[in-house]
Design brief:
This protein is mainly beta. Helices cover 0% and strands 48% of the residues.
């Protein structure tokens, strides 16, 4: 069995409510989507900006 190692990179995203930048780790080479609502499925990171707004970053 071969194990595939997934590397992640830090990328900067903007809060959809106030534009405040935050850093988040996503899999290398993936496309990201920033949303103010959470979906029922999919790979995502929950982010809270310095102003307290919570949003989700999806990678695919």
């Amino acid at each position: 069995m071969t194990t595939k190692r997934i590397t992640s990179v830090e990328t900067e995203v903007e809060c959809p409510r106030c534009g405040e930048p935050s850093s988040v780790a996503v899999p290398d080479g993936s496309e990201i989507s920033v949303r103010s609502t959470v979906a029922a499925f999919g790979d995502h990171e929950t982010v809270t900006c310095s102003r307290g707004h919570r949003y989700w970053v999806y990678s695919c």
